[in-house]
Design goal:
two-stranded parallel ribbon, two-stranded antiparallel ribbon, alpha+beta, 4 strands
Length: about 60
């Protein structure tokens, strides 16, 4: 059973997350030849204060 874990800075809409799940599932199913029913996708929202980019938080960088 293929499993994908996706980390995003929080703030995406439910519709955007739904699109990520749909597209990641389709890509993984196609890439490994697994039935899409067996694909699992987990999205984790990370606060921008806990996401580091080049030594700064995403919040400090305006993201």
């Amino acid at each position: 059973m293929p499993f994908a874990q996706v980390f995003l800075i929080e703030g995406r809409t439910e519709e955007q997350k739904r699109a990520v799940i749909e597209k990641v599932s389709a890509a993984l199913s196609e890439a490994v030849g697994a039935p899409i029913e067996n694909v699992r996708v987990l999205i984790q929202d990370i606060p921008n204060t806990q996401w580091g980019i080049a030594g700064k938080t995403a919040k400090d960088l305006g993201r």
